[in-house]
Specification:
The chain is mainly α. A hairpin with a 2-residue loop joins β1 and β2. About 2% of the residues have low confidence.
Length: 237
């Protein structure tokens, strides 16, 4: 509850440290020493704190109460969220976000429904609003694998089990994660902009489809990071 208010004014360094704290609680799982296993209720609380930290206040949700009641906050919501996203996308912090995503994919397979739902909700926001476009293809395989297993009832406590009934809200959350991740990773717009798919709007465009245009040998951008994925025709196939 504190960060619902603090989100608007806290310094970047404070936001970073609270994110790291919440992420570490969600990710602890070796059961020994300082890394003692946390119970699901504690991890759920940490996941909900992460949700509060990354939620876009211009969108619907329990965290945009102020934007609904006070026009002055509504005008501040977008620039504030963009500022936080810039912090999350800095080279030094992207690995933290990536590790957080990995931890959440694990807790999303918990047998504790609230933890599953909060984990999936944070994953959806990280995939749709936080992670840079060139990183989404890197995390897409893990997201698709976990989300589909959850939706069909095969994922419980990181073990494949027999298929069973799955609560509708859990299926909806898993499908939402799939939706935002697949669209950002291999959607028409991103593939067209990368030259992997040709946009066809006229008869002339149809004629051009027979002309091969290879982008396999595109030079790697100077600012390309090791954890990013370069989109190419072979990658898309």
């Amino acid at each position: 509850r504190l960060f619902r208010w603090w989100w608007w004014t806290c310094e970047d360094a404070v936001w970073e440290q609270v994110f790291i704290l919440a992420s570490s609680v969600v990710g602890i799982g070796n059961g020994k020493g300082k890394g003692k296993q946390r119970d699901d209720e504690t991890k759920d609380a940490a996941a909900r704190l992460l949700l509060c930290l990354v939620h876009d206040r211009t969108r619907d949700g329990i965290y945009n109460v102020l934007t609904n009641s006070d026009p002055s906050f509504r005008s501040k919501a977008k620039p504030r969220f963009e500022s936080i996203r810039n912090v999350a996308q800095t080279p030094k912090f992207i690995p933290v976000v990536g590790q957080t995503m990995s931890s959440l994919l694990e807790t999303a397979t918990s047998s504790h429904l609230p933890l599953q739902l909060s984990s999936l909700e944070v994953i959806a926001i990280l995939a749709s609003d936080i992670l840079p476009e060139r990183i989404i293809p890197t995390v897409l395989p893990g997201i698709v694998s976990t989300s589909t297993r959850i939706a069909v009832g095969e994922a419980t406590q990181n073990q494949l089990t027999t298929k069973g009934w799955v609560k509708g809200e859990l299926v909806a959350a898993a499908l939402r994660v799939l939706e935002v991740s697949v669209i950002r990773a291999i959607g028409d717009s991103v593939c067209i902009s990368g030259g992997l798919v040709k946009s066809v709007t006229t008869l002339e465009d149809l004629k051009e489809l027979v002309t091969e245009r290879s982008v396999e040998n595109q030079p790697v951008p100077e600012n390309f990071k090791p954890y990013e994925t370069m989109r190419s025709p072979s990658w898309l196939r």
